[in-house]
Write a structure and sequence with these properties.
This protein is α/β, with parallel strands linked by helices. It contains 16 helices and 16 strands. Helix content is about 40%, strand content about 20%.
Length: about 425
Amino acid sequence: MIIVDTALKARHEANNPVRVGMIGAGFMGRGVVNQIANYIPGMELVAIANRTVSNAMDAYTKVGVENVKEVKTVAELEDAIAQGQYAVTDDPSILCQSESIDVLIEATGHVEYGAQVTLEAIKHKKHMVLMNAELDATVGPILKVYADQAGVVLTGCDGDQPGVQMNLYRFVQSIGLTPVVCGNIKGLQDRYRNPTTQESFAKQWGQTAHMVTSFADGTKISFEQAIVANATGMKVAQRGMLGYHYDGHIDDMVDRYDVEQLKSLGGIVEYVVGTKPSPGVFVYATHDDPVQAHYLNYGKLGGGPLYSFYVPYHLTVFEVPLSAARAVLFRDVVIAPLGAPVVDVITTAKINLQAGETLDGLGGYLTYGMCENSELVASDNLLPMGLAEGCRLKRDVPKDQVLTYDDVELPEGRTAHRLRVEQDAYFATRKVPATV
C-alpha cells in the first residue's frame, strides 16, 4: 500500500485532498469518520448523509470535527465545501450530485436503501465504495454493469473480510500459486441466534442487535463469502459451506480438504469456526512446480500440496479510506463481481414459519442466510436473503427449510427487487418471477 500512501501525501502537500462523502453514520460509519478526520492526510470527509441528521452531526463532533453545517440543497453543499465547512444532510442524492465530491462510501448495511443510493451515485458518475456486503451479494453484478457503463469504480472495501481475502488472493496469485480456498475465520456460529439473545452484546459495543444477530447466525458471513465467490469465480462445496469447527491453527487444517475436489470446483469459498488466528482470513493454494515446492518448504510453508496463507486480523474502519483512495487515485478495485453471480445467499427458516407472516429480514427472528451456488439458486427458484425483508408468506415453511419465490408475495415498488430481475435477465440465470 506504499503507493497509496505516497499518492495521498502528494495530494496533501498540494492542498488537493481526495474529497469523500459517506452515506450512513452508524457504528462502522462513525469509525470511518474518525479515521479520515484524524489519521489520513490527503483526504477529507466533506459530507455525511444520514436519515437522522443529528447522528451525522454527532459522528463529526465526537471525533473533534467542528464547523459542521446542515445542508438541504446541492448548492448549499457546494458552498459549504468551498468554505471549508463539513456538511450533513438527510438527503443522500445531494452528495451524489455534488461536483465537489470524488467518491462515496456506502455504510448503511441496508439492501433497499443502499440500492437506491448506489444507482443515484452511478447516475451522477461517482465512484462508490461499498461497506454493504448485503447489497453487493444480492445485486452487485448488475450494479457493476451499471458502473462500468458509467465509467466509474464500484468496489467493496479494504478491511472487511471480503476485501482482506481478495488482497491476499491477489498476493498469492502474484507469487505464482493457484488459490483453491478463500476462507473466513469465525469465533461463533449459531443459526438460531436472534436480536433478543444478542441484545446485551450489541449494547456493549454500540451496535444494533440485528447487526450482531446477522454476525452470529451466519447470515453476514454468507454475504461476505458470496462476494468473494463472485469476485473469484469460486463456488461452495455444499449448501451453507463446509464450515469446519477446529480449535487449532489454520495452518493445521490443510489436510481437511481434497485438492482434486477443490480443483474440479475451480476453488471454493469457505469459513471455519473457533480456529486461530481469529478473527482473520485465509487462502489455501497449490501449484505443480517442484522448484516452487522446494522454495516454499524452505520458507517454512511445508511440503504441500496445499499451502496456507493468512491475515490474522481485519481492521475495517482503519482500512476503508484506503479503498476510497485506490478508487480515486488509481481506479483500482478492491473486490467486485467478475460477471454473472457464482454464489448467492438464500433465505432459510430460523423457526417454523406461518402463512401470512411478513419476513423481518437480516439479523431477525424468522430467517437466516446460507450460501448456495447460483445455478442451483436459479434452477430451484430460491429466494435471495437480501430480498426477504417485507415478503409475505403464502404458506407454512418448516424450520431450516429454504424459501422459494413461490413461497412468498413480494413487496411492490422495491428498487432492489427490480435490480434483481434485471440481473437475472441480463445474465440469464433464472426465469424471472411473474409477480415482480
